[in-house]
Design a protein that fits this description.
This protein has seven helices and seven strands. It is α/β, with parallel strands linked by helices. It has a single domain (7-209), classed as Rossmann fold (3-Layer(aba) Sandwich). Strands 2-5-1-6-7 form a five-stranded parallel beta sheet. A two-stranded antiparallel sheet has the order 3-4. The two termini are 15 Å apart.
Length: 210
């Protein structure tokens, strides 16, 4: 790990658990030029072969909905010091945009998403695995607010999706993946004790490669 001077961190947890908050708070405690962040959601498959109505009915909480094989390859490129082009997914149209986001290889790379520990090919890329563990009632309220405010969804559609796919897929895939975590952080991404511990470890890593 020290030889190639890269530390790849996976942050998993249920939808609305506080993964993004955890990632943002980690970044705040580190030099910005040393860290890059990737969202697994960016890798949703582009199903332009389907109508909008058909795309809206897809199960976005199943591992097959994501082009994880591309993320695995790109993490290998980042570890080798190469830049990558990350897809940009439009949640209002349920399709990828034509443009991509250029991500430069940095010493610390964070990957966050609900399913990042599920597949061994991706899980094995991580040097540190963090699972953010938050009660279901808190997670669902956060998801409702996010999907309505940021993704143009109706309450009815969010509710239907939660019962049809989000909750079943969480129980089948996300919750069991917790056993692969090196660190389990209770109460979302604002757990200051856990955050201080993680940031301290990353600061030590940076000091060793500086």
């Amino acid at each position: 790990m020290m030889k190639d001077k890269k530390l790849i961190i996976g942050i998993a947890g249920g939808t609305g658990s506080g993964k993004s908050t955890m990632a943002r708070n980690i970044i705040k405690g580190l030099p910005q030029e040393m860290i890059a962040i990737i969202d697994h959601d960016s890798y949703y498959r582009d199903r332009r072969d389907l109508s909008f109505e058909q795309r809206a009915e897809l199960n976005f909480d199943h591992p097959n909905s994501l082009e994880t094989e591309l993320l695995v390859k790109q993490l290998g490129d980042l570890r080798d010091g190469k830049n990558i082009e990350v897809p940009i997914y439009d949640f209002t149209t349920h399709s990828r945009k034509t443009e991509t986001e250029n991500i430069a290889s940095k010493p610390i790379i964070i990957v966050e998403g609900i399913l990042v520990f599920v597949e061994e090919a991706l899980r094995s890329r991580f040097d540190m695995k963090i699972f953010v563990d938050t009660d279901a009632d808190i997670r669902i309220f956060r998801r409702i607010r996010r999907d309505i405010e940021q993704r143009g969804r109706t309450f009815q559609s969010v509710r239907d999706q939660y019962y049809n796919t989000v909750r079943p897929m969480h129980l089948q895939f996300v919750e069991p993946s917790k056993r692969w975590a090196d660190i389990i952080v209770p109460e979302g991404g604002d757990n200051q004790v856990a955050l201080d511990m993680i940031v301290g470890k990353l600061q030590h890593f940076i000091s060793k490669i500086a």
